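Design review, sub-item: ligand-bound model
Attendees: FS, YL, KQ
YL presented the inputs for the calcium ion complex:
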Amino acid sequence: MRTLLMILVIMSFANWSNAQSIEKFSIDSGGASVTAGGIQMLYTIGEVNVQELNAGGILVSEGFINADLKIRIHPKLFLQGPILNPTNAGLMNDNLRASGFIPTTSPYTDGATCNASVFNVTGNNAIVDWVWIELRNKTNNTSVIFSQSALLQRDGDVVDTNGTSYINLNVAADNYYVVVNHKNHLGTMTNTPIPMSRSSDPVVVDFTNITTNTYGSQARAELTSGKMALWAGDANGDGLINFSGDVNRVLVDIVLFPTNTSFSSSYDFVDGYLQSDIFLDGNVSFSNENNQILLSIILFPLNTSFSSQYNFFEEQLPSPSVLRSAAQLNRDFQRLEQTLDILNN
Ligand SMILES: [Ca+2]
Ligand SMILES: [Ca+2]
Ligand SMILES: [Ca+2]
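KQ shared the predicted structure:
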């Protein structure tokens, strides 16, 4: 017992000898936390009384809890395919969603997922498809700082995987080029870096607006409404709209469709979530998709000779999007080879 008491006394003394003296502060215990759009903010009500103590190599900060704010972004875009023949003027069609074809796992490299209930929403905020966003370095626009999958609403809002919130990005406050992209449309990038600070107000980047300048030449399609859209027609997703690559890819998706046992190019039941479905209506047909691809190539403003073999209808980005992954292109190449084998035999 005596030994134990002695040990306790020594321990107490040891603790006392290491103790540091910190001034007393009177901070009110009032406060609460609020959560909105995936951001939780804790706040304390009281006097501002913050100091840092540095003693024995240990830095102690005291004061109020800082809110963990992130950069919030609100891109807006139209995809030309689902808005060319709109059921409701000014809104993209959402046939893929209505048919239950949009996967809960993103088709892009990050494999982001969403809850299936996200696709139950109808009306202006119904989901059209998965899209892809990138932030690029303000001094080197080929350097992708951050990228992720996101969801696109019928009215053009690009939102988080919950289908409603603006997107919170876990990156430092800075200026960034913003890229938006889609698997069978041509992506586009802001012409200048956009300032982004840590704020609960999202930074709006409106690619539907003609006054939002984009990188390169003829990067977007102008709709009859005067709004801008990402060019449809990149059926094989390689960043170039051309006859050989994209018309062939439509053929691949039709001829290799599992129920098309006769490998017919005019098979009419190619339904589902398909790479070459450029209208995003849940069906690929030789006439629909290929007529549009051909029309787009011939009428592309820089194709002054109206040639179907025009080969410079390219995604206007300083370097390829992360979306155009080597793996994807390799898969497409293998599928093309398989198809050519079938057609030749
Ligand atoms: Ca909306
Ligand atoms: Ca292509
Ligand atoms: Ca289609």
